[in-house]
User: What shape does this take?
Amino acid sequence: LFDRGLQAVMNAGGTFSPAHDQERVQTVFFTTVFSVMGHVAKIDGHISQDEVAMARNIMQQMRLDEQQQRLAIELFQKGKQADFPIDTVLHQFRQECGRRRNLMQMFIEILLHAVYADGQMKLEEKRLLHHICKTLGFSLLEFTALENMIRAQQAFHGDTGHTHQQSHHHAHSSSKPRPDLLHEAYQMLGVATTATDSEVKKAYRRLMNQHHPDKLVAKGLPQAMVKIATEKTQEIKAAYDTICQARGVK
Assistant: This one.
């Protein structure tokens, strides 16, 4: 899968080259994301339209050209097959990532977004994601924190429907955010409502650092996925602004 992905992306005019470590990681990230996404979508016995729509949405966000889209779809289909070597793919992905833990976390977050595309996580999906996290060196506690963050992010985004600029404007208005929206904002940052202003700011800065597009690209996130990382930071900023608004903190 990795070799096919590398060759196809290079044939499509990509800049990936096995001679450069970062570009090699970018290629294996691209390959692993779409193949494992297909495997996760199929694990409960069928693939919902929401899951297919999520995969296509990621392709659109990445602005893939026609040949790269065909490759992504092919990888997704490969992942659906019963003999898909999930453990081999994950071990290679972890080996290629090395110490790039933030990159592996971004991979898990993308899978969580795909799983929650239909609004719920089934038992088979949760078991598989636990296995994926364990293989990549993430604890159950870390997985639960990521799951809570993604669920809150999707609910927060759905409740606000704001762009980053709109959220920034609302954060500086006199109106107070709804209690449910505020709760989701705290969940996104992974802090309790009783956290101090300093603790909230620390959590915000940590998440922004983990999801900073330039830093992730430097670690091996494909350039095509920059928009995904950018939207993540915008959601984190909107959540932080919401909390500051409720607390009267500028």
Remarks:
- DSSP finds 13 helices and no strands in the chain.
- Confidence is low (pLDDT under 50) at residues 12-19, 160-174.
- The radius of gyration is 18 Å.
